[in-house]
Amino acid sequence: MRVIILESAADIAVQAGNIFVELLKEKPDAVLGLATGATPVPTYKYLIDCYNKGKVSFKDAVSFNLDEYIGLNKEHPNSYYFFMMDMLFSHVNMRKDMIHVPNGVAEDIEKECRDYDALIEQFGGIDVQLLGIGTNGHIGFNEPSDAFSEGTYVTDLTKSTIESNKIYFPNGDMPTKAITMGIGSIMKAKKVILISTGHSKAKAIKAMIEGEVTPSCPASILQKHSDAVIFLDRDAASLLA
Ligand code: PGA
Where does residue 12 rank: exposed (0-12), middle (13-18), buried (19+ CB within 10 A)? Predict the structure, then answer.
């Protein structure tokens, strides 16, 4: 695990974004693992800027997002599919049929989970997986639990995740379940980049980096990944020894 502390969210966006820019230069049909949430937004803005300046093309790229709320379809403004279109894909030359977000309204959700993992494998696995982290140490929607999950599955969201994300659902209709890539799926990515900013994440960051590897802090598993890079601002890093 390589930990890099930077001055600002903007610096993190440039460093994390450049990893994708370089990847796509070397491998135009790379498989990108992408994340939602507030943290990656500056990185996506930076990638859009690079695209507009002709520094990167997504023409042959493939993407897989980490997760989706159960019960929200692609058109729902709170769905993660909608978020990705809004924040990145509709601004760059990504092929729509190469964009993959788990289907939160699949009739057979178990099959959706199995198919999602199979499709990632079919494309040769994820080259670079971008991650945020929850205040409870979750990655994707892998919430603290007794065991590390394996492939894509359906999970109940914890109180703390509902607390953190309910601001996006002013009508009080936040889903309580999600479909998420599992810890096993995330660990298969060839490279992982976790980005985090702000004091609210400092405890989870300390547990991830300095704590034991335990499913009660799902992100701690990244200590065992052979190529995990953690970009933090000073606030997120403030509790580190
Ligand atoms: P955030 O979410 O980027 O909105 O803080 C991160 C996460 O919950 O994984």
Answer: buried
68, 112, 143, 233: which is the annotated catalytic residue?
143
**67 in active site:** yes
| 11, burial (CB in 10 Å: exposed 0-12, middle 13-18, buried 19+) | middle
pLDDT digits (tens, 9 = 90+) for 142-180: 999 999 999 999 999 999 999 999 999 999 999 999 999
How many whole angstroms separate alpha carbon 131 and alpha carbon 64? 12
Q: DSSP class of residue 213? A: -
Residue whose pair of structure tokens reads 């379940």 in the numeric block: 177
* Residue list, ligand 1 pocket, CB within 6 Å: 37-39, 132-134, 138
**103 catalytic, yes or no?**
no
Tokens of 185: 């799926």
Atom of ligand 1 lying closest to residue 35 CA: 9
Task: Answer whether 0.90 is exceeded by the pTM.
Answer: yes
